[in-house]
Automatic annotation (TrEMBL):
It holds the Pfam family Inositol_P. GO terms for biological process: inositol metabolic process; phosphatidylinositol phosphate biosynthetic process; signal transduction. This is inositol-phosphate phosphatase. Its cofactor is Mg(2+).
Length: 281
């Protein structure tokens, strides 16, 4: 079993491209052939009409689980669909083994509707620390990667989030109301203020990519599921951004965060949005 971050770094130096190849193959064989071709029996509801799962989600996750564990012996996978089937499997994020965090189709609702705004998310973490991430939007032919301390890249080009332009409203992607508690709805109301332009989010992974590219300024998300956030959080960090909960602490993939939380292009924007969410603007 891998027992040190240094060894994982060696693994990444040798096999990061193999992970990318596996993600591309999962998309090519299990996801894209079903895009805009889904039959009714290939789509199910998990927790209501806004929480969908398809055969593409299930089969791509199974493919990635097999390949990723083979690539890194001793590692485990926490995947969205496996956790839905067995919630206790989520606890592996807090375990001793290196963990692959997988969302096979992030933005399933968009995928089902034939929209191009979906992606596959994979992150590698150890001891609660994110070490590497891969974000692949196959319908847009975009592939973003990040490694801790080594930068973020989109299709081989370095990403820099930059800072918001002075005098322009902050562009903030927010949680869908269906996924918020009454307390979280009240917190999100803090964004309805001068200088902020909140809007409903799409695929979480693509929202993080937009921040890393400097196309969006921040998020305000109210749920903790690591498969939605892990890859994007590292991408934003390595592009120069940051993330904070309402108490001013970084978001933890292991849970226990004060929600909603924000990820932003720069520290000043993160502090401002976190302050608005906590009522302390």
């Amino acid at each position: 079993m891998i027992d040190s971050n240094e060894t994982i770094e060696e693994f990444l130096a040798q096999h990061a491209s193999d992970v990318e190849e596996a993600i591309r193959k999962a998309a090519a064989t299990e996801i894209m052939p079903r895009w805009r071709r889904l039959a009714a029996h290939e789509v199910d509801e998990k927790n209501g009409p806004h929480d969908l799962v398809t055969d593409a989600d299930r089969k791509a996750e199974l493919y990635l689980t097999d390949v990723l564990v083979d690539l890194l012996p001793g590692s485990v996978v926490v995947g969205e669909e496996a956790v839905h089937a067995n919630p206790a499997s989520y606890d592996a994020i807090c375990g001793d083994a290196p963990v692959w965090i997988v969302d096979p189709v992030d933005g399933t609702r968009q995928f089902v509707h034939g929209d191009a705004g979906f992606c596959t998310l994979v992150a590698l973490a150890h001891g609660g620390t994110l070490l590497a991430s891969w974000t692949y939007a196959p319908a847009r032919d975009q592939f973003a990667t990040a490694q801790r301390g080594k930068g973020a890249y989109l299709d081989g080009e370095r990403l820099f989030a930059g800072v918001p332009e002075p005098g322009r409203d902050l562009r903030v992607a927010t949680s869908h109301p269906d996924y918020t508690t009454d307390e979280q709805k009240h917190a999100l109301i803090g964004l309805r203020t001068e200088g902020v332009a909140p809007r409903p989010c799409g695929s979480a992974g693509l929202e993080y990519l937009a921040i890393a590219r400097g196309e969006s300024d921040a998020t305000a998300f109210s749920w903790e599921a690591a498969w939605d956030h892990a890859a994007g959080l590292l991408l934003v960090e390595e592009a120069g951004g940051t993330h904070l909960t309402r108490t001013g602490e970084p978001f933890r993939i292991t849970g226990g965060n004060d929600l909603p939380f924000t990820a932003a292009r720069d520290a000043a924007t993160a502090r401002h949005v976190a302050g608005l969410l906590s009522g302390g603007a």
